[in-house]
Amino acid sequence: MSIWAKISDAISALARGESLSVLFERLRRPPERSVAFTIAVIALGAKMAKADGQVTRDEVAAFRQVFHIPAADTAAAARVFNLAREDVAGFQDYARRIARMFEPAAPILEDLLSGLFHIAQADGHYHPAEDEFLARVAEIFGISPARFSALRATFIPDAPQDPFAILGISPEASAQDIRSRYRALVRENHPDQMQARGVPPEAVNLAAHKMAAINRAYDEIVKSQTRQGG
Question: What pTM value is reported for the model?
Fold first, then answer.
């Protein structure tokens, strides 16, 4: 059974009246944790796509970029997305349920927030309502305002692009500390590390986008320090 078939069955349980509490308690147990994570992405992604009042084709396409959906599973994936989008539960409910599965600010929660940023900017306009939505999700996840700003700079082209904020390190840090921080981020966003912490394979490609921003930020800092040293 594919992950989408499992997810479709789980969402159908909601339609039959099973509560979110029961569903997430059942899915949080290994090896189903990755299914629960995927459901959270679907539910929050569907609701975030509606945060600015409409769901565009670009946002749906961005969701498909986060999750490479096999042709055989397209119908099941669409059903899951539509059910999550129409569910009466507020997005805070989904965010709290998934947050309880992990420690506050756990890397996997940042992975999830990264996916939501990717969907938010897909239509070329980052709406204030989307920013408010994502800031609230970050708060529920225990992600600090500084890390939220760093992720926003990573995914939103019009956001302030502070390379130190993207790396999550002080401008006063030494070159050695900056290099150590950069290497830690590279390890953290390696596909093997992401899968080890429960990110399903369908969502690992988000790391490529994050790593591009991390590399740009580090290169900018190194070039700036070289110019200053020269």
Answer: 0.73
- Nearest Cα neighbor of 39 from 190, 202, 193 is 202
Asked whether residue 155 carries a pLDDT value surpassing 60, the answer given is yes
Q: At what angle do helices 91-99 and 107-120 cross, to 10 degrees?
A: 150
Handedness of CA 92, 104, 61, 202 (dihedral sign): negative
Torsion angle of the four alpha carbons 152, 172, 212, 134, in this order, in degrees rounded to the nearest 10? -10
**Cα 2 off chain centre by:** 22
Integer Cα distance of 216 and 137 in angstroms = 26
Rounded mean pLDDT, 14-40: 68
Beta strands in 139-187 (DSSP E): none
| Structural element, H or E, at residue 109 | helix 107-120
